[in-house]
Amino acid sequence: MSSYTSYKSLCAAVALGLSIASLSFTAQANGEITDQVNHLKAHLDEYNEEVTWLEDKYDGFVTRYEENGAEAVDTQELIDYWEEVNFHSAIETQYIPLYATIWQNIYGIKTGIENGASAKEVRQYQQTLTKTFWQALGAVKLAAHYQDKGVIGKVKTTEKAPTTAPEIVADIEKRLDKVVAKYAEQLKEVATTMVHDTYMERFEGIEGALIEQDASLVEALEKDFNVTLPQAIESGKSVDDVRGIVEAMKQKLSKAQTLLKKAEQNRKDVF
After folding, report:
1. Looking at the structure, do residues 11 and 133 belong to the same domain, yes or no?
2. 120, 148, 176 — which closes off a domain?
3. Which residues form the signal peptide (predicted)?
4. Does 153 reside within a domain?
């Protein structure tokens, strides 16, 4: 697949996400989220420079490892590079699935070196990371376009709780994406807490209404929230495994959202 075709596919996926506000949500970044994330278009040149800088930094880092071994590198720099740039917050607040993939590959390089992996193995993570940086820049550029048109609202640092059942389901899906991102950052306890809080603060709020529509679906999601996903996190499953569990949960949540919307419409028709 050509890079242009890949970019078009990414844009289509991102554009689809806009309809459920997946490109804009309350974010809790590692550091402070400055107002630059609400003026993406004005910072696109800066983000482009930062992605080029990141590509050079990670490529140079792996080259040093390749030529001189683990003694020639400090793996903490791998995290420092990423957290240094403003682009970090731009992608975290606009398209968190790619944000999670970035962390996944940064830690792929880091743990690979620390465990004595071959330079070839480490280089594969670095090349995937570079590709993801450019994909993320494409997502931010698309978000900047929609932000400029007023389709995407401003990033807020305080959370406004959803009110209707379909809105709650959409919020649960976004929270689950954040769980994957935090797990990819190797923040296991944070990810586990987020799963628990999402269940208590969101899912329990729609549980009663959903039981009326599909009790077996509620039972399946309860198991996912309280057993399957937390156990995968605690046992140190791969990021891809955790992402797979979340994607399966989101399919069930999509069904739940459809059922709740239908039930809500039926109530309106009655009254």
Report:
1. yes
2. 148
3. 1-29
4. no
Residue 160 lies in a domain: no
Do 50 and 180 have their domain in common?
no
> What is the structure's pLDDT at 137?
97
Q: What confidence tens digit (pLDDT) does each residue in 202-246 have?
A: 999 999 889 999 999 999 999 999 999 999 999 999 999 999 999
Which region among 5-14, 63-72, 212-221 has the lowest average model confidence (pLDDT)? Answer: 5-14
Q: Structural domain tally of the chain?
A: 2
Q: What is the pTM of this model?
A: 0.77
46 contacts: CB under 8 Å, gap ≥ 6? 86, 87
> Is the CB of residue 191 less than 8 Å from the CB of residue 233?
yes
Q: Report the SS3 class of residue 188.
A: helix
Which contacts (CB < 8 Å, 24+ apart) does range 183-188 have? 183/100, 183/233, 183/239, 183/242, 184/100, 184/101, 184/102, 184/103, 184/104, 184/107, 184/239, 185/30, 185/103, 185/107, 186/103, 186/107, 188/233, 188/234, 188/236
Residue 35 pLDDT class (50, 70, 90 cuts): confident
Q: What are phi and psi of 150, to 5 degrees?
A: 85, 10
Query: Alpha helices of 19-118 — where are they, by DSSP H?
Result: 44-68, 76-84, 87-94, 96-114
Instruction: Check residue 91 and give its pLDDT.
Output: 93
Do 140 and 218 fall into the same domain? Answer: no
CA angle, residues 209, 192, 239, in degrees to nearest 5: 105
Q: What distance in Å separates the CA atoms of residue 20 and residue 270, rounded to the nearest whole number?
A: 27
Show the tokens assigned to 168: 């709650």
φ, ψ of residue 162 to 5 degrees: the values are -65, 155
115 in a domain, yes or no? Answer: yes
> What pLDDT was estimated at residue 161?
75
Residue 48 domain flag: yes
- Domain of 225, in residue numbers: 165-270
How is residue 165 written in tokens?
């059942």
